[in-house]
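Figure-free illustration: sequence to structure, shown twice.
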Amino acid sequence: MHKQTEKLSYTTTFLMLVSRLAFFLIFQVIIALFTNSWETSEKYWLLTATLTNVVSIALLYFLFRRDGKKYLDIFKIKRSSLKKDILIFLGITIISGPIVFAPGYFLSVMIWDDPDAPTEMMFNNIENWLVYFLLIAFPVTIAFAELPTYFAFIMPRLKIQMKTKWLAVLLPILFLSIQHCTLPFIPDINFIIYRLLVFLPFAILVGVSIYYRPSLFFYFVVLHGIMDFGTALMFLLEIQ
């Protein structure tokens, strides 16, 4: 029974590791079938992300509850180190600017010789009402879904399950970055490579920071939500 439970635990961890990569693609396929157009489905990637976030939150709630824990407890602030955590996080935030924005610029120039190429491929007009809905739904759901999946659920389990401890931080980092190649999935090798790599430096920063100081998790969740609110705003500007 112990071996069976352990095997199930490994299986659950692996499935969660690839879950968002898969659900992004699954929801895009559903939209493509509904609209009879793959190109049209590419425009709705903010919607596919939000739907995936809802599924991720539901899975996290169920899995934490199955383990006798509360999903919302992962967002608690560690009050004993509050001041120190805030100071450390502010320092990380200051240096994170280039890490967040520079990769996109340099990869775009290297691949297309045009820094605006990926933006033009991803940000297209969609229905106004949907943009206004996603302006709130996307950043809120992603804050409660993405980092919690990789760094509150997967990474702590990999610390226990993996004999090679550095894999416990490397795998969540890699899959946090890799997942973006299906958000949206555009069958263009240059775009796929761009999406695979563009968030890797930031994923490393977040993953390593949380690995060595787990009490920073809540602050990165908040930052992540704010950043993706900015992403949703880009869609709003597109329809103006």
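We now fold a second protein in the same way, so the two outputs can be compared directly.
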Amino acid sequence: MMQVQVVKSKIHRVTVTESNLDYIGSITIDRDLMDAADILPGERVYIVDNNNGERFDTYAISGERGSGMICLNGAAARKVQKGDIVIIMSYAIMPYDEAKTFKPSVIFPDTATNKLVK
């Protein structure tokens, strides 16, 4: 049976609030955003920086709920700057027939605050 990789989750256009070069790695994401986009702690995520074109992957860790935190840690901190606009995505592998009707979780937070728009 053929398997395909499709977008599972997307946080579209959030602002990097900090970077921490001395942390061991990952991206810290406000837990409210993770839940809304259906991203799990430890899940592999892909980051696209709209300001400089960088594309890279890392894993998600939970940040404080309601904080709006988007913090790149470790080596990833060298790829972005505070204030950059990023898109965070995760993918899933599934059977072709399931992928044809699958609907990803896509959220569009307020870019100024990184809070969910109600």
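Summary for the second example: The chain has a mean pLDDT of 96.
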